[in-house]
Amino acid sequence: MKREFQIISTKLMTPTPRKNYVRREKLFKKLETLCDYKLVVVKGSAGSGKTTICSSFVKENPEFAITWITLDKENNNVFSFWYYMLESMRVYIEEIEDIISLFQMIMHKDDIKRIIVSLINLLSTKDDITIIIDDFHYITDVDVNKTMEYFLKHSSENVRIVLLTREEPAFYVGDFLISGRLLEIGEEELKLSADEGFRFIKDTLKMDLNYGVIHDMNMVAEGWIGGLQLIALARSYHKNDCMQHMKVLNKYMITYLSKEILDALEEEEKDFLVKTSILSYFNEEICNKLLEKQGTKEMITRLFQKHLFIINLDEDRGIYRYHAIFQQFLQHSFERLEIETQKKLRLRAAEVYEQCGDFEECIKQLLEMQCYEAALRKIEIHGQNPQGWSYLRHIPLTCIVQNKEMAFQLIFYHYCNMEFEQCTEILNTVYEGESGHHPWKVFAFCKALIEEENLQLDVLFIDEIEDMDISDVTKAIIYVELSFFLWFQERIKDALYVLDKASMLEKRMKNPYVKMGILSSLCQIKEDLGDLKECERLYNQLFEVVEQHPFLSALKVTCHIGITGIYLKRLQLDEAEKSLQHVQDDEAALGKPYLYNLMELQFLKGDKQQAKETIQKLQTFDTYQNEAFLSSLLKYAIHVDEEYVQQLDQFVPIYQQKNEKKKLRTEDKLLYAQILLRKGHIQESLQLLDDIAEFTRKYKMKILLIEALLLKVTILGNELPKYKRELLNLLREAIHYSYENHILLPYKRLDKQTQVLLMLLKEERLQDLNEGERGFLYVLLQLGNYDKENVLLSNRELEVLKVLATGASNKKIGEQLCISLSTVKTHIINIYSKLHVSNRVEAIKKATEEGIIQ
User: Which of 179, 533, 719, 801 sits between 20 and 30 A of 501, alpha carbons compared?
Assistant: First the structure.
């Protein structure tokens, strides 16, 4: 079944300028300098000549490489807009097909910026290109304007944009204005001069009127070329002077003149104009099928020659469209036809456009007649992706939810983009029609997901997705996205289950984008489990996929950000910093994941002020204002600045609410255990930590288990004699789960007492550790080097070392510290052993290098 979004090729055609057009010398001179500008804005009302000026300039200047896009209101969403932008590049970019295929699969609006980065990179290697976007006034959507501003700001100087619009662009153009890279052509400049008006009537419209009459007509029209043409045509069809009482050309006069023109035509001509006015574009074949008659080419030619506001889009293929001024009037006339006639024509138009392969126009015709079920069937066939789903906003939800697959995909799309209100609205409609229950478990999962209820549902809902009548690509992407949600709910087994399903589909499709999604999700899961070696192997696979498929190059930054997490957990801070440097110049990458890793790096390096500033940046994101992610930030923030400690009290009621809804994550529980400890509720904290340890052992969540074990060590360490055996067992277990993957991050914040316990473990239980665990223990004993604290040597050994460094003999050391000579020798042997040296000189040198002594 075909699932691709269909493009309207006529939207990408450069209009053919009318014959004998008036050459606008002043405006042409301005346009000849467009290579000196990044943005050109041609602003004027409907019929002011914007399109004619630019299309005629393009015709006269073939040396300019241009691409032309004509928009309508349906392009006012980020997916539709950028799909046309990409399609317009086919002539200039050989690799564009790969990017379009990638674009077809994205669910998140945020991912569009990655697509734009890929486009920018490809365009930077090409020759000069000018992108002309007609009817840009339809673009009011915030996301479209933001991405357009980003494209303009970051694309290379060989790329420029020309906007033809009735309104000022909604994005910020101040930077281009200040830098002298904005060229503006306004309403006043578009107005015809007296001489240009005369030539337009004489040369273009071929009307034999004297100069005085034309001057009066142009004065009433106030230089507006569309108005002048209306007046001229009305006058030509009515010998009486229609201007006799006309002082100003307002909307009422436009309607009057349009009626005068239409009434003066033959009945067959009027019938043709009114009935074809519903078409966005037409040619002989389309008109023949719509009107169920042959030979409409002669009619089209005749009306075109009468200058009845018909624009030639493609002279060779005979494709035309009506100008907005006249089409709007004609459509009002169409609406006066009998309803049954209107419906038949609309349905026939939909069928004709579908036969032409034009899904967009087909669906628009069906929606005009509120044929919602038929429209849904077309979307199901042609548009199961975000671009096609944009049409669903015109269809009542009560109709959409009758198609379960469509309703589920739409919920899923809104959830991916954190549009939760829309999700709730759809779900409410689903359940209203089912008396509060629905046989599909997948809707129960969606409901629980949105309403933050218990998500421990049977995985049978996943099997329902497998049976849906949707494309394999869509299924695979849904599985990948579901894996992230299931991972976040710590349903690791289920997350791996859906990823396995996605992998089976990907092996059949050989789709690199889907493969990247699968590997990315696996990396996230493996990193959180603490399987860092496996995670690193998967990241290397990700880098290989990107290298093999250059159109995915914009996604390489996510690999660098991801692998930074591994380096941080191993305390490989230099490698982590290098990895982040790969992306710090990429503005599109400097989002939440980058900033979070940067904050961790700053914290681990001891740059608390910088870490605090990064935390403040993170708090501006909606994600970190959401209670679901609060603990991941607070666990660092409370160690950075005392002001964040106060936020712990705000976390308590959030914790309790999440606990009631069974929405707690282990990360929340660990933070709450710290809060209980701070409040002096020792036993409650210990009980919670035991619960965490039991859960994380069961599901092999190594990093969280290690954190729980170490926090318990911190609590019990104050009573060493009483809990010595248990403390050493806890440390041994933590080391056991750490050594294979070299997990060091949880040990970074250990207090001095725990560091002493590590030394005690070495002295008393070293024989119980395997070779790998012993090596890891030695690494832990060196961790204090970052803050210059000595945890290797006891206080007495440190005193002996400091006196030894003065050059004192063993006897002098004993006398100065009031200890026996044999005790001095024992301490010196221990110092040599712990510092891995064999003499005094090496001991002093090693201790000085490592900051143990000054």
Answer: 533
What distance in Å separates the CA atoms of residue 399 and residue 397, rounded to the nearest whole number? 5
Distance CA(719)–CA(205), nearest Å, equals: 101
CA 206 to CA 185: how far, in whole Å? 28
Q: What is the pTM of this model?
A: 0.70
Which superfamily is assigned to 9-190 in CATH?
A: P-loop containing nucleotide triphosphate hydrolases (3.40.50.300)
Indicate the pairing of strand 319-322 with strand 310-314: antiparallel
- How many CB atoms are located within 10 Å of the residue 298 CB? 9
User: What's 452-552's CATH class?
Assistant: mainly alpha
Instruction: For residue 405, list its beta bridge partners.
Output: none
Per residue in 670-686, pLDDT tens?
999 999 999 999 999 99
Please name which of 192, 213, 212 lies closest in space to residue 204, comparing C-alpha atoms: 192
Look at residues 39, 243, 49, 333 and name the one whose alpha carbon lies nearest to residue 161.
Answer: 39
Instruction: Quote the tokens at residue 200.
Output: 């337009």
Q: What is the topology classification, in CATH, of domain 665-784?
A: 1.25.40
Question: Do 665-784 and 452-552 fall under one CATH topology?
Answer: yes
Query: In angstroms, rounded to a whole number, what is the distance separating the alpha carbons of residues 234 and 384?
Result: 48
Give 767-773 contacts, CB < 8 A, sequence gap 24+.
768/732, 769/732, 769/735, 772/739, 772/740, 773/732, 773/735, 773/736, 773/739
Output the average pLDDT for the chain: 86
Q: pLDDT digit string (tens) for 573-620? A: 999 999 999 887 665 556 788 899 999 999 999 899 999 999 999 888
Cβ pair 12, 68 in contact under 8 A: yes
Cα gap 85→101, rounded to integer Å: 14
Provide the CB-side half-sphere exposure for 256 (13 A, CA): 13
**Amino acid present at 526:** K
Inform me whether the pLDDT recorded for 436 exceeds 70.
no
Q: Contact, 448 vs 482, CB < 8 A?
A: no
Residue where the block lists tokens 């990360």: 667
3-state DSSP assignment of residue 8: coil
Q: Lowest mean pLDDT: which of 501-510, 579-588, 663-672?
A: 579-588
Question: Looking at residue 486, what is its pLDDT?
Answer: 86
For the stretch 263-308, pLDDT in tens is 888 999 999 999 999 999 999 999 999 999 998 999 999 999 988 8
- Distance (Å, whole) CA 358 – CA 5: 9
Place of tokens 């080097």: 785
Domain boundaries, the chain: 9-190, 195-263, 452-552, 555-640, 665-784, 795-850
- Check whether 242 has a pLDDT greater than 60: no
Which DSSP letter does residue 512 get?
Answer: H
